[in-house]
Write a structure and sequence with these properties.
By secondary structure, the chain is mainly alpha-helical. The protein is 67% helix and 0% strand. It folds into two domains: 2-39; 55-104. Helix 3 packs parallel to helix 5 and helix 4 (71-80) packs antiparallel against helix 5. Residues 1-49 are annotated as: Disordered.
């Protein structure tokens, strides 16, 4: 095993210094371009983490659905998450519930 390690070390030492420099130069622009793609991938500003979904956000969405006459769909959603009323829905499902409500209308 030590022979294998020695062979690798000698092979790395035998590479010309300019080849190593070229590898570093190629890697640097790629890292910069990835950051630029992440920051401005079709968005108006830099990427920001999402806010956690709150009870008030869901209430607001549900209010719009109630005005549109979609009470029965709201009841089905609530029952799917094991609740009869919105405050009974566990907070871990808020994100899924809001997403499902947004699909309704």
């Amino acid at each position: 095993m030590t022979n294998h390690v020695q062979n690798l070390e000698s092979a790395n030492a035998a590479q010309p210094a300019n080849l190593v420099k070229e590898r570093r130069q190629v890697a640097a622009p790629t890292a910069k371009s990835n950051k630029a793609e992440q920051a401005y991938s079709g968005q108006a500003g830099p990427w920001e983490p999402r806010q956690p979904v709150t009870l008030e956000m869901i209430r607001t969405k549900f209010a719009g659905l109630v005005q549109a006459g979609r009470q029965s769909e709201i009841r089905v959603l609530l029952r799917h998450y094991g609740a009869e009323r919105l405050p009974d829905v566990p907070t871990k499902y808020f994100d899924e519930l809001l997403h499902a409500a947004e699909k309704l209308g």
